[in-house]
Amino acid sequence: MASDKPKDNSPDVEFFNEKEKIADVSSVASSQSLVDEAALERPEGVATQVISTQDDPELPVFTFRVVFLGIGLSAFSSVLGTIYTFKPQNATVSQLFCLIIAYVLGTAMAALPQQGFWRYLNPGPFNIKEHTVIVIMSSTAASVAVAMEIIAALDLFYDLRLNSAVAIFSIFSTQMIGYGFAGILRTFLVYPTYAFYPTYISIVNLLQSLHFGGTLNAKRRKFFWIVFTAIFFWEWIPQYAFPLLTAISIICLADNGRHDFVRNLFGAGSSNEGIGLFSFSTSWTLITQGNPLVWPLRTQVNSFIGMGLGYIVLTTAYYSNVFNGRDLKFMSTSLFGLDGNTYNQSAVIGPDFKLDQDALESVGLPRYTTTYAISQLCYNLSLGASFTYIVIWHWPELRAAFGGMRFLKRGHADIDDPHYKEMQKYPEVPQWAYGLLFLVSLGVGIGCSYAGPNGTVLIPAWSIIFLTVLSFLIAVVLGFITATTGFNISVKYAIQIIAAFLHPGQPIPVMYANLFGNSASFQTLYMLQDLKLGQYTKVPPRMTFAAQMAGSIVGSIFNFTMMKIIVSNNREVLRDPIGTRVWSGWIIQQYNSASVAMGAFGKELYSMGKPAGYWIIPFGMFIGLFMPLPFWIVWKLAPPKSLLARTMKYINVPVVALYIGWLPYSVNGQWWSCVVIGFISQWWLRTRRPRWFVKYNYLLSAALDGGSQVILFILSFAVFGASGNEVPFPSWWGNSATLSVDRSATRINISSVFWPPPDSCSPQAQEPFTVRSHTRGIDPNNHLTDILQV
């Protein structure tokens, strides 16, 4: 129903308030015959206008199909997710990928006979609730646990190999701690309408399109499969045959790899190459990282503002020798010595895994690249700003959720949300169950931390308890940001800085602190999102809980198993600061770099007055607390409906701060494509073509994600070396053997490099390299024939 209030049709109001001119007979969406334009003025309006509240309580949920496909796809997705962790691209296993595979297999099983014994295998048509439970199980398993990454770092950089049972229980217990938190926070971050989790709208939209009947849904299904097929056959071209299309930069093409400055600022095609100014990608595998079809326009605009500032800040800081990093690589997450080579951490970390002060005198302190140091600073600024931002802008929601300890209330809450109201017919998981899960998991986690190799105590119990309490507070703040914007803020740097004060001179406890400070809050967000998915699709809460538990158990086992295989087969490549186009340890290296720098050298490296000036990195959390205040004060003082007031409220300081330091990782060829697609989808289509937007926008996102994920999986095993054998595409203009992907850097022949590559932790590692000529080491078992000279 149209709003009765007068409209302001000025461009500014349209931009800042995202007005939707929708008067559409919407099919799928809600039970209303007309889309409520007033509801869509708010970002969360899509949750009630695009998603149906339809429910059939008689649909079977716990079936043989659910158990068989759920466990099978959980194993499959956890293996694939682990593989992606060791890839140079920042790829993940999408829930949409799990959804597509589950739908194909589920509908195939529904074609079995229904008589006699077969009725147990096929109780009827494959329904939306079965489908959702399988998706929750498999996507939970696909979410690679932080614990697995920490265990990999201990293996790669400390030669500490945990007992298999200890490792698996460590992974599982830290996930379950987060699940206990999520149960407590349901009334605040699941039940209400404002907690709409934007990235999940496309998933629910697709589920309802596949399972709800009607002529329009038939058209939508056809649309989905056409787009799915098109992207499936397209994506192999930029990913394999024509990699230049993953990062198209006119400036890099013109420069042809001649100048470092051009590569650093405009390069984006290879891992750790550059920050990608004016670089465009045609690969949806990369573009989808920016969620341009599903993130609210406000979230995207704030991220674009942050990246725009990032181009200026990162480049200016590097060339101005901020943090004394001008003689290092422009981008890397590794630690470097005074001579510019990989830091010899084994020389300063004694056999007891503590700092050797005498060795430190001769080796010296490690250094970060300038861009990595700034990125850490921005993460901490963003985290500090998040706490203040939530309090000053969202105090009413906090008071409603936590006033009078309402979040501990048992059973159903008094929440005015149409989806939640439909769920009140189903019994909830009692709060005591979540509390018991939390206590048992915490006990198992403490026990595993005392079971390190040769009796090593990985982290003491008192520290675990402190970090767990801190993690809960962080989950409240970051959970609200994720629920309302779809944006996740990492806390790993902040947690490691805090752990460095708790365990000075001890890198392993600092690294292990991530399991209880970072992993617990991270898993809380995943649990909350899956609970919301169950609410949208009307899966009984107890079945959602069981699906998450099962997915975590299966995922823990296969995460660890696959990690061991990859680490043992690609050890030297994963330890190399750059890696290759096929394998990279950049994610794992971050944990090692932070644990050594913050754990072993916390006092020496972060004290004020030191030449590098790293003291500002931990202090950034406190600076961040004050960053939202100027915008809030101006908003309070400005006329309520003025452009200035709307602008101040529009700025999301945590998002802007984080994106200033977002770029110095992995590949960056996709962000300018995200800018174009984001405005087309969330502004032009939403305001100018609202009927198409409501019917197809989120379905388009699902189809593109699903098709690109499927072909990437096939390519990973067929040609990218996940199976052990890489099959390079023949060299041609679009896949140069002498230049990097986007022509911003020169490749040199492997025969001109010292071979075999020495151990990066040994003193000999410094011999074949110079401060200004950093080369990528090559695993002799890898089929790559050239390396990137940066």
TrEMBL record:
Its main location: membrane. It is found in: Membrane. Pfam families: OPT. GO terms for cellular component: membrane. The keyword Nucleotidyltransferase does not apply. InterPro entries: Oligpept_transpt, OPT. It is a multi-pass membrane protein. Belongs to the oligopeptide OPT transporter family. This is OPT oligopeptide transporter. The lineage of its organism: Eukaryota, Fungi, Dikarya, Basidiomycota, Agaricomycotina.
